[in-house]
């Protein structure tokens, strides 16, 4: 908890460290009621900064100092200064050794940062600033050290003892304890340190690298989960091969380990050689994990593995540079997932997520640039902007340089900076140097927050056969940034003729027509692009593959959007046309609802989706994406003032209208696919994911018709399927239906069968917490009384409270303010237990400016109540105070 006014930390104040730590030797004595940590730090004055000897200020929090020595000389209280965040001592030579012993209490650590216990095992989470809760240290990423770690624990309860690097020695003691020593040959910052001790089993495999080295692969889990590791292991091997083939990156240690833990604040952590994962991001098998969970496991395993180069071998100089490793690594994992599955579908999913969530962040009170310039609590900056927009920025570099140029740049980056802690500027410089280009203006993407708008208009001169597109870019003000300079916006585009054919493109200065899809770099506030030799009035296909994270507008008519859905050669833009058409139709319905008029659905959306559904050649994954109407979250984001009730009513009305009109083809698809699922074993691969996805979307539409045969089919699927994907989908539609009896029965039998599987119960919780049926808050409060609920477990908090606040707008935004009050109460409780989780839960309240004055007042009042509730963690304080500012 905060004892002083929280301080803002600025990028402009960055200073290199006064001292370096060449070697770090750690000894952990793990006990059930305390842990002793001894640290020996081999240090020296940073030679780059001079030869004087300024005071040495080590970071340390919640540590009980037991002893301290400088060069073997024990220090007394007069020799150092101790506060609750620092230990200051006074070196008397340029090279010296510090020995410290501290006592810590992992057994009562509910913040899940530093060393803590989860389901009886010891584990760590040090990024960003958790290592300072383990020992006194220079806890900053630009201090890199060679670590040796010895851990000892009681052998019976903790047979497995792990840390980073390679195991070099181990032994038993007479008192029933044992120990192991690990040595990591690579220099690393403290945030990549990890330790695990527990009663774990492991699945083993091996990987032969591109230079024929054997690497042992191990996934450690609690014994009852040993049957759920194969998918993660397969994903790991695919990732290792992919990174060799795509980026020329080889793994560097003799062993790579993943450990699954049940209590974890996020998805996973890339500690060197010893990745620690939320069990939800490792464990997957057909019977207990959905297709989406399988895909998430594959993506997170890949993401953490890819960090070994983008993050660990080349790390961040300071935390303002977080996107250097996170944006780049998200980009790398998205390329990987695209290659393993369908690139178009992966792009659609990423863009839908970005536009719903990151665009909202970028338009709200917590908007910040990809490289922020100030923060109070770094944990609050593991954001969609740093991760997802950061990935979009890297993607734009690739679009501008081409795949080959980008690879040259990444090769140079890894070669030039291996073993260093660097900045986003260093990344860009490598891209520039490898390609002989100047990215100075492009770098505004790192420093300017907010989502740029790109307005496009057209003019066709039939006589001159000239077609002109005019681009106007602007960017709204964000906190602390009123004036924005033009961005470099790569716009990938093509022109389409009346027969649906791609028109040849001839730009100014070109003697003849060239490729029929181009990347045009828009770098001025207003800019014209002229196409020559255009024989007919074209329809432009703009921002193909969503080539830049901007809000594009072009005055397409609904008929033109239907035309693009049919004829655009870019798969992403065919989907985009379907979404824009649906947005126009839904916005019209919202207006009718608000005016109290009867809602009347534009038949064109129905007939467009009918065509999609009738196309047997179309990838079922694409059909699914097109059939999925824009979510309430996205409709909220694009609305000036979001009318929660009207948006929900309009979208439900449209879904029902589609279900009625398309009943026959949906029913036919559903039955055919269910038949396939019934007669073939579950396979965790893209084409099977796609089939089940469409099957389940069809089922959710069909249920809206209330037909008896659909309910029967739903129950048949729920009871007789062999996998969680079909079971969960059937349960979800029952939970959101008016078949109260069937719903209660299904929920009860599901809980009875899966009561001992925490991850399955998380799904059971969240499907109910997200149910838009009336009475949501009462349901959520009841769920929190369920024996399987536990406020100290982040997965449970996310499944119940997170799902209610984030995915259940109609219940959360009840006009009596009860949803807001509930969420604020939970934040206040969690603030004391786990500040990072408390701060994340706040997110729906931070968006208060989006809603009607009535709701705004209620939401604001809850934020104010939190602020006044007592001693706040820096995490919660920062989010609440910035939201109210
Ligand atoms: N690097 C970690 C995130 C750590 C978050 C700390 N609050 C996971 C990842 O992005 O790979
Ligand atoms: Zn990451």
UniProtKB/TrEMBL annotation:
GO molecular function: alanyl aminopeptidase activity; metallopeptidase activity; zinc ion binding
PANTHER family: PUROMYCIN-SENSITIVE AMINOPEPTIDASE (PTHR46322:SF1)
Protein name from the UniProt record: Aminopeptidase N
A UniProt-annotated Pfam family: Peptidase_M1_N
Keyword check for Thylakoid: no
Gene3D superfamilies with a match to the protein in the record: 2.60.40.1840, 3.30.2010.30, Neutral Protease Domain 2, Peptidase M1, alanyl aminopeptidase, C-terminal domain, tricorn interacting facor f3 domain
Function noted in UniProt: Aminopeptidase N is involved in the degradation of intracellular peptides generated by protein breakdown during normal growth as well as in response to nutrient starvation.
Essential cofactor(s): Zn(2+)
Broadest EC class assigned to this enzyme: hydrolase
Reactions it catalyzes: Release of an N-terminal amino acid, Xaa-|-Yaa- from a peptide, amide or arylamide. Xaa is preferably Ala, but may be most amino acids including Pro (slow action). When a terminal hydrophobic residue is followed by a prolyl residue, the two may be released as an intact Xaa-Pro dipeptide
Domain Peptidase M1 alanyl aminopeptidase Ig-like fold, chain residue ranges per copy: 450-553
InterPro entries: Aminopeptidase_N-like_N (IPR045357), Aminopeptidase_N-like_N_sf (IPR042097), PepN_Ig-like_sf (IPR038438), Peptidase_M1 (IPR001930), Peptidase_M1_dom (IPR014782), Peptidase_M1_pepN (IPR012779), Peptidase_M1_pepN_C (IPR024601), Peptidase_M1_pepN_C_sf (IPR037144)
Underlying gene: pepN
Domain Peptidase M1 membrane alanine aminopeptidase per the UniProt entry, residue ranges: 232-445
Domain Peptidase M1 alanyl aminopeptidase C-terminal as annotated: residue spans: 559-885
Organism this protein belongs to: Pseudomonas marincola
E.C. number: 3.4.11.2
Keywords associated with the record: Aminopeptidase, Hydrolase, Metal-binding, Metalloprotease, Protease, Zinc
Keyword Glycosyltransferase on entry: no
GO biological process: proteolysis
UniProt domain Aminopeptidase N-like N-terminal: residue ranges: 108-192
Homology family: Belongs to the peptidase M1 family.
